[in-house]
Write a structure and sequence with these properties.
Layout: H1 7-11, H2 15-22, H3 28-33, E1 49-52, E2 59-64, E3 75-81, E4 87-94, H4 122-130, H5 145-158, E5 163-166, H6 171-179, E6 183-186, H7 188-197, H8 223-231, E7 243-247
Parallel strand pairs: 4-5
Antiparallel strand pairs: 1-2, 2-3, 3-4, 5-7, 6-7
C-alpha cells in the first residue's frame, strides 16, 4: 500500500488503512512489554489505540492504552503537518502505568492544567519533583525513548521524509532531544543563555534562593531541577519559541547543558 506523504493525506483514507499506518508509530517493544496484539485491541474487541484523525484535518492525536478503561495511555502523541508538508511533533509522552500518578495535569476541582502550562497544581508538582519526575510528567516514563525515536524515524522515512520537527514543552525536553540528534531551528540562543545563567556569575544563579520549593541552589547542576525552576518562572517568561528538527540518521551534537540529570 502506497502511503501518503502528509498526515492530511493519511487522514483522508478509510479508517482501517488510517489505523494501520498510524500503528507504525508504536515502538514494537511496547507490544511485547504489555502483551498487546498487532491489532491493538483486547480480547473483548475494545480498541487500545485511540485516534483523533478526522478527514480534512492535517493533524492526529494518538493514545495507546495497555488495558481498556485505564486512566492514562502508555503512549500519547499529537502530530501535525507543517505548512510545507513536514511532520511536526507537538506532544509525545510515554507513561509507566505501574508507577504512582501525580495529578500535575489537574487542579483539585478537576480543571485541566494543560500539564502545568495554563494552570498549576503546585502540591502535586512538589510531590512529582520529589519523586524524581520532571515537569509535565504525571507518571514515571517507560525508559524506551531510544526505541521510540528510532520507530518514529522509520515512520517518517515511510512517508518519504528525511527530517521531522519537534516542539519541546519544557527545558529538559529540549536537552533530551539534543541527545537524540535533534538540532535547533529556533531557540538555541535561549538554551545557551539559560545554561550561562546557571553558571557562577550568571543572572539565574542568585534566583535559586529557596524562595519556592522549585528554586533550590542544587538546581544549577541538574537538568531536571533547572527545568522545574524554569517551569516555576525563574526566566521571568514562559519557556516557549523553541523548535527543533532531526535529520534521519543524525546523531547527537554539542549539548547546551553540560550537567547531570
Amino acid at each position: 500500500m502506497s502511503i501518503p506523504s502528509t498526515l492530511g493525506g493519511i487522514n483522508l483514507l478509510p479508517q482501517p488503512e488510517k489505523r494501520a499506518i498510524y500503528a507504525r508509530i508504536i515502538p514494537p517493544e511496547l507490544l511485547g512489554r504489555f502483551q498487546l496484539n498487532p491489532y491493538l485491541s483486547d480480547k473483548q474487541g475494545n480498541e487500545l489505540m485511540v485516534l483523533d484523525a478526522p478527514a480534512g484535518s492535517s493533524s492526529v492525536e494518538i493514545s495507546l492504552y495497555h488495558q481498556h478503561g485505564f486512566r492514562d495511555p502508555i503512549l500519547s502523541g499529537h502530530l501535525t503537518d507543517t505548512m510545507n508538508g513536514q511532520i511536526h511533533i507537538l506532544f509525545y509522552t510515554l507513561n509507566d502505568p505501574a508507577s504512582p500518578r501525580y495529578d500535575i495535569d489537574l487542579l483539585p476541582d478537576g480543571t485541566s492544567t494543560q500539564f502545568g502550562t495554563q494552570h498549576r497544581n503546585q502540591a502535586a508538582e512538589i510531590a512529582a519533583m520529589n519523586a524524581n519526575l520532571s515537569p509535565g510528567q504525571i507518571r514515571e516514563g517507560l525508559h524506551t525513548l531510544k526505541s521510540a525515536v528510532s520507530t518514529f524515524e522509520n515512520f517518517i522515512s515511510e512517508l518519504d521524509h528525511t527530517m521531522h520537527f519537534a516542539e519541546p514543552l519544557f527545558y529538559h525536553n529540549a536537552v533530551i532531544f539534543e541527545r537524540y540528534g535533534f538540532r535547533y531551528q529556533k531557540g538555541r540562543r535561549l538554551m545557551e543563555r539559560i545554561n550561562q545563567g546557571f553558571q557562577p556569575g550568571g543572572d539565574l544563579l542568585p534566583l535559586l534562593d529557596g524562595s519556592t520549593p522549585f528554586r533550590q541552589p542544587e538546581a544549577a547542576e541538574s537538568i531536571r531541577l533547572r527545568s522545574w525552576a524554569i517551569h516555576d518562572g525563574i526566566l521571568g517568561e514562559p519557556f516557549t519559541n523553541v523548535t527543533m528538527y532531526k535529520e534521519s540518521g543524525k546523531h547527537a551534537g554539542v549539548s547546551t547543558a553540560q550537567c547531570k540529570w
